[in-house]
Amino acid sequence: RSTDTIRNFCIIAHVDHGKTTLSDRLLELTSTVELRNMKEQLLDSMDLERERGITIKSHPVSMIYQKDKEDYLFNLIDTPGHVDFSYEVSRSLAACEGALLLIDAAQGIEAQTVANAHLAVAQGLEVIPVINKVDLPSAEPERIMEQLEDVLAIPAEEAILASAKSGIGLPEIIRAVIDRVPSPRWLDEKGTRALVFDCIYDAFKGVICYVRVFSGELKQGSSISFMGSDVKTQIKEVGRFSPHMVAEDSLSGGKVGYIVTGIRDVADVKLGDTVTRMDDMAGEMLPGYKEVRPMVFSGIYPLDTSDYEKLKASVAKLRLNDAAFVYQSESSAALGFGFRCGFLGLLHMEIIQERLRREYDLDIISTYPSVIYRLRKTDGTEMEIDNPVFFPDASEIEWIEEPMIKATVHTPNDSIGDMLALISEKRGICQQTETIDTSRVMITARLPLNEILVDFNDRLKSLTHGYGSMDYEPDGYEQSDLVRMEILVNGEPIEAFSSIVHRQKAETRGRALCGKLKDLLPKQLFKVAIQAAVNGKFVARETLSAMRKDVTAKCYGGDISRKRKLLEKQKEGKKRMKQIGSVSIPQEAFVQVLRSS
Ligand code: GTP
């Protein structure tokens, strides 16, 4: 087949604007999968993805569409929908020539619509705007077309009005893919070049790379080299997705497919790397490659210490399919043995934690999330820390820098005031506000990454009544007045609760944490002080009064079985307690404090 009839494209959209529904519809129309086999299992195959309505992994699919007796090969590359995965999105886009930019006709342009559209343009893709869900009574396609022109500078007449649900506009979408998406580019460059845009781990085959071949050809048995990581291996199997993996003899320029290699560890394959053939070496890598580094760190511990081995096996398994997730073992006085884990962002962290709980049936505790701080000590050494435990003594620090982000927030007009207040509360600086249309604005702000880790998104959602959205990208480092805050219970510091905070926020946060702990800790036989300290100076204090009666006192010696029951209950409670010095802290307190602080 000539490459003139190949179209490589993707669908990009804000969460819930209908990407999965449209992909399914396209598969149906091209009879790629029989309806009854299709179900939801195909795209968005993970439970969690379905439930949270997010696409985590990219699933490419090849389909054949016939037009004017000509067979067109459509390669549809699905992209992850969340900001945490923006590097993965940009690598998936780099495998395409065009993108369908899907916008909900009732919701309009949201933060990720803009972010994704910019990524697509940066990759040189032809962007085809599709206004979806026009079947909804609340659809306002004209308003969305104005937004397109105002916010993205895309001419309104380029938009296709569609409903992935009812089928409106689908023939137009297919025609636009054929007519407007260019056929494969860079075919004639020297040497074989293929882009690795995703990889998965298969228990039998090992690491399987998803590739887009630009020039040359990948064949079964070819000796290949990953140019970025300089790993060399041989292709054991090569094939396409239709939609399941189907082996072929080779994959030539313009095509999308997979290669099975001898590599056993996903960590050895870097997303965005270029594969070349040893007997047809390319001179240069494909553009855009970079190593991704985790941005957010947190400790994960089993609630029940005897689950450690199970947790160890589970994180190892998760790691196999997710090269962006890193971990190493660590231990904490309060929580026992666990792992220090690194994630791309907060959502990525939540996904991993949730999968451990659900798929691996583990009760886990995670410590307060942290970013990577850079600091220089007075003795001239520079270091990076992602764990408050390693924070040096204040007297040894010359300067400390924290990672910043550039955030784009979309909000209804009537929430601007609240939104700006939230940004400033989070130590952010508003850089720009732009009107999207008569009812919405886009705020650009610079904030410390650390400040958006815990509740920023939830608060944004609640103060905009669900109508706001946010996207962010890293924006360098900046010096800041940061300190380590420790929480002490009965004079004993509890590592799991320590955190790195801005000096001005230490007191408020310390008070909140102490107050919370006071509510959560069971009374002890003696009075217990709960304190927050910065550099050995207390910034907050609560006192837990001593317990007066023992639990059986109410039983007046009469009912012996009831007495026993109470004692047993108390014993059970003890099991889930952590002994810190002379005070027992229930595990639940760890979970609660870390969840809400
Ligand atoms: P992510 O995977 O999170 O990016 O979501 P998505 O963009 O794949 O959205 P999905 O296809 O799951 O659709 C979200 C919701 O919108 C679902 O409840 C769909 O049934 C609904 N939906 C999708 N397309 C249409 C449409 O054309 N009309 C109507 N009325 N509803 C639609």
From TrEMBL:
Domain of life: Bacteria
A GO CC term attached to the entry: plasma membrane
Protein's membrane topology: Peripheral membrane protein
Reaction catalyzed: GTP + H2O = GDP + phosphate + H(+)
Main subcellular location: membrane
EC number(s) given by UniProt: 3.6.5.n1
GO biological process: positive regulation of translation
SMART domains reported in the protein's UniProt record: EFG_C
Molecular function GO terms recorded: GTP binding; GTPase activity; ribosome binding; translation elongation factor activity
Family as reported in the entry's similarity comment: Belongs to the TRAFAC class translation factor GTPase superfamily. Classic translation factor GTPase family. LepA subfamily. Belongs to the GTP-binding elongation factor family. LepA subfamily.
Name of protein: Elongation factor 4
Organism field: Puniceicoccus vermicola
Native organism taxonomy: Bacteria, Pseudomonadati, Verrucomicrobiota, Opitutia, Puniceicoccales
